[in-house]
Queue: 2 jobs
Job 1
Amino acid sequence: MAFPENFLWGAAASATQIEGAWDEDGKCPSIWDVAGKHIENGQDCHTACDHYHRYKEDVALMKELGLKSYRFSVNWCRIMPEKGKGNPKGLVFYRNLVAELRSAGIEPMVTLYHWDLPVWADKEGGWKNQKIVDWYLEYVQAVVEALSDQVHFWMTFNEPQVFIMSAYVLGNFAPFQHAIFSFKNCLRNMLLAHGKAVSLIRKIAKTPPKIGLAMASTNYIPDSEEEAGLRDAAEKSFTSQVGEGSNGMYMDPIALGKASKMLRRKLSAEDLRIISAPIDFIGVNVYQPANPLFKDTKYSAEGKPKSALNWVIDGRCLYWTIRQYYERYHLPILVTENGMANPDEVGPDGKVHDDMRETFLKDFISAMKRAVDEGIPVVGYQHWSILDNFEWCSAYGPRFGLIHVDYQTQKRTIKESARYYARIIATNGEDL
Ligand code: FCB
């Protein structure tokens, strides 16, 4: 079987990681704008790829590659720079971006929250404060009213695991807190915000919406494809302590209307009703398998290579994530992120020879094809990322882009892997 005819081959990015213009046109600071000492090499996201001013050039490059879709996020701080106060200029930027994408024939996919919490909201407790549900809905309403004539794909959240667990418990992502006793409150607030946003979007969108969210899906590859091996891996991925924390705790309430073990006392029947408002797809961000990793060696236990961030490169995790998610939740899957960091440089010939990323693409897209061949509804694949960008606390070291960015000059160079990806797109996945 081939990829479906309307398969959405695309790429992804997020506002904080590429836009820059951190204090322009009425925008307020986000928790990442003030992350200061937590960012490597004293760097910041204030200019990033300057996409805010260069979006036309960037969309032209996407068009050159033949992308069918582009997943980006709206920065809450541009839209609601003060509590209860909107900023029309912020909406204008995203309307222009969407218009540019549409005229290039590229389907825009909007993530409503990719971690850029306004500092004003953080000062009032951020995700710990139940009022955030209303603040978030007010923001979502402004965005949906402004963009939904042209935008059909909506993701309420990117990787809740990270902006709750890493940000409020482990303290290694903004706002860098160790608020372990607030963890369940944060999670409940996020789940309610998600469910209410789904119902709101469904109600006010000007064109029929497709709504989901993007999960940081860390799933296990089974040891064997016998029945027992499959069951064991699925259990580990969703209901074991690790699996519940990384997948089940979030998705079970959303897609099954059931609280996982940890949340049983936290979510009422009414909460679950709100949280489980029907969605249209599940987005999965897939980078590496959850199987035990051997961090100090160059290769994984099974001899698989690793990327510049030491992440194991094993395409099978994309197949298993898609399959396990589909078997548990029975919803179409959109691959919302998948990619690798590589020490890419522009060579003397003016090109970026990132062979490793070509191998990566072949490996992961072949694995995704297995899922498609087996009849699992996979709607699209958004490579992370369109541009090299600000990789959170690791700043500008890890280069994930299909397009190289020289941060001194902001010059963009299409990498050789992107040319390969363009061929995959042009042949709808035939030429792998
Ligand atoms: C994901 C994030 C994305 C990017 C990639 C590398 O966890 O959603 O913003 O940082 O990892």
Job 2
Amino acid sequence: MIRDPENESMPRERLERLQLERLRAKVGEVYERVPFYRRTLKEKGVTPDDIQSLADLRKLPFTSKLDFRDNYPFGLMAVPMEQVVRIHSSSGTTGKPIIAPYTRHDVDTWAEIMARTLTSAGTTENDVLQNAYGYGLFTGGLGFHHGAELLGATVIPTSTGNTKRQILMIQDLGTTVITCTPSYAITLHEAAREMGVDLRDTTLRLGIHGAEPWSEKMREDIEDRLGIIAINVYGLTEVIGPGVSVECPYKCGMHIWEDHFLAEVINPETGEQLPYGEEGELVITTLTKEAQPVIRFRTRDIISLNPEPCDCGRTMVRMSRLTGRSDDMLIVRGVNVFPSQIESVLLEVEGVEPHYLIVVDRQHAFKTDELEIWVEVSDEVFSDEMGKMENLEKRLRSEMDSVLGIAARIKLVEPRTIARTEGKAKRVVDRSEL
Ligand code: ADP
Ligand code: ZN
């Protein structure tokens, strides 16, 4: 189902005309109203009039996470505070919080974008949607909530945590759609198992997961354990929150809602724009946001874009599954790896649970010669004789070496010993934090 075919499936030439029109208006607006943008544009020697085509986008300066910090809290705002109806803030995975103000119009647009997002994932007004993303400052909870209500689904705003009650709700209220981080989906399955509940026997049929990197292998695992279809959804606080992009039922990349978000991929080292298909850092310009528009925001997320038409009928470009944030990249003896790549190698191996920690020495930043990976094993493997554990360890070491080309020390740990999170899972830790 497509909620808004006129926009979601518009011919790309028309989309590009719309994008250019919106881009020009937005650049003019921030130049006028936000001293920060006036300064960065002037530094690059550009004025809004220089934007005559979408190709001129590359003339514009980038905006980074650092600029958000330097202008904390309201320095990037383009409207007076009276027009702001809500303020969110990032979960702060990587440092000082980022403030995200919304006007009334922004809140409405976001709800519409989320209704579109949920529909693309396969939700309808007949669904009972249990929203286990965190409510509060984090954009996840309220973002999904308003979208699902607008769509007309029945929303159960459980927020994160109280996992036993989540299971009871699924059973008693007939939840059909669960929205939560992928790692929390695994936690739900484990809690259900402990309660003697098989989630595959419940009404649950669809999961919409995002906010953290997860591998294709993790998707299979979640689908299998919960007996659902699991769909990938992407977003970030600086841009709007969840709903920047989402998969359709074909699961072949996440459609970016390009009538609102203008996407480019750049070489993170040189800043140079890369052609479709090449992997690089995703850069987003918001085309409709009022309270805090962003121009060429560097997400630090590494992806590639595919503009081919999709079987679902949408014309909007698709972004690949994220390998990870550039900040999370580890350099192990010169080899670049992301935690999610390590995850997919681990989960290929039988007897391994989807809980792991990558232990590094901050001393060497994320460049390291030695990598240690803690992996939880299943109850069956753990209760078996020593030999099985040894074999598993050997197998993991050799898989890591042959697939990723990295030598890693593997430490197998007892079931349920790696801390569970309700929101975003923390996969990389410094040894000093242990
Ligand atoms: P914080 O930066 O504090 O984590 P956000 O909630 O704004 O706060 O996080 C947004 C980031 O989360 C994205 O830039 C991306 O790195 C990650 N993320 C969001 N959705 C996904 C997804 N589906 N797959 C992988 N990473 C994701
Ligand atoms: Zn599609």
